[in-house]
Amino acid sequence: MYKIAIDIIGNEIKSSNDLINCLNNICKFLNQKIKGYDWVGFYFHNEKNKELELIAFSGLPTQHTKIPFGKGICGTSALTNNPIVVDDVSKESNYISCNINVKSEIVVPLFANNKNVGQIDIDSNSIGQFKKIDLNFLIKINQMISKKFFKL
Ligand code: SME
Questions:
Q1: Residue 54 has pLDDT above 70, yes or no
Q2: Pocket test for ligand 1, best of 123, 124, 129, 130 (most atoms within 8 A of CB)
Q3: What pLDDT does residue 152 have?
Q4: Whose CA is nearest to atom 7 of ligand 1?
Q5: Is the pTM of this model over 0.90?
Q6: Which residues pair with 43 in a beta bridge?
Q7: What is the domain range of residue 101?
Q8: What's the rounded Cα separation, in Å, for the pair 44 and 146?
Q9: pLDDT single digits (tens) 116-139
Q10: Category of 46 on φ-ψ map: left (φ > 0), alpha (ψ -120 to 50) or beta
Q11: In 10 A of CB 81, how many CB atoms?
């Protein structure tokens, strides 16, 4: 499934010239086709305001459309530049809840010319949903987005 998904998403990126539209299509695809990807969104950095801004998503609307750097899982990844996998969000103190059904989460930074400019954030209603294969899958998707839309 992941290999086929990479091909489909690769074609979406290749054929798109509108970043936001492309990201919304990727969110919708992942949310609808990958089991356990119950909310999928992209946050981008607003360096001036030192916060993340939600620019595309699929799943239930969230009130957390802006997240200060350092706050929650997303804000922590924005500062450390590292991906974060949380197997059980109830055990995480620096966690912002968007929906009571969420049990696990993955955040993977998106680098443009080696700079962390955003992230893909996925929530699951199952505990321990995200494995190494998901991490590699999402790194690859972010690399494809970066290559198309952020190449110098
Ligand atoms: N749970 C995230 C907030 C974003 S929502 O999952 C959509 C966090 O702790 O940063």
A1: yes
A2: 123
A3: 66
A4: 98
A5: yes
A6: 54, 119
A7: 2-149
A8: 12
A9: 999 999 999 999 999 999 999 999
A10: beta
A11: 12
**Confidence category of residue 84, pLDDT binned at 50, 70, 90:** very high
Question: Are the C-beta atoms of 2 and 37 separated by less than 8 Å?
Answer: no
- The reported pLDDT for the residue numbered 151 is 79
Distance 152 CA to ligand 1 centre (A): 30
Portion of the chain with pLDDT greater than 90, in percent: 97
Q: How far is CA 69 from CA 1, 7, 66, 72, 76, in A?
A: 34, 33, 10, 8, 7
Please give the tally of structural domains in the chain: 1
The domain that holds 90 is classified in CATH as 3.30.450.40
Residue type, 39: W
pLDDT of residue 3: 93
Do you know the residue count of the chain?
Answer: 152
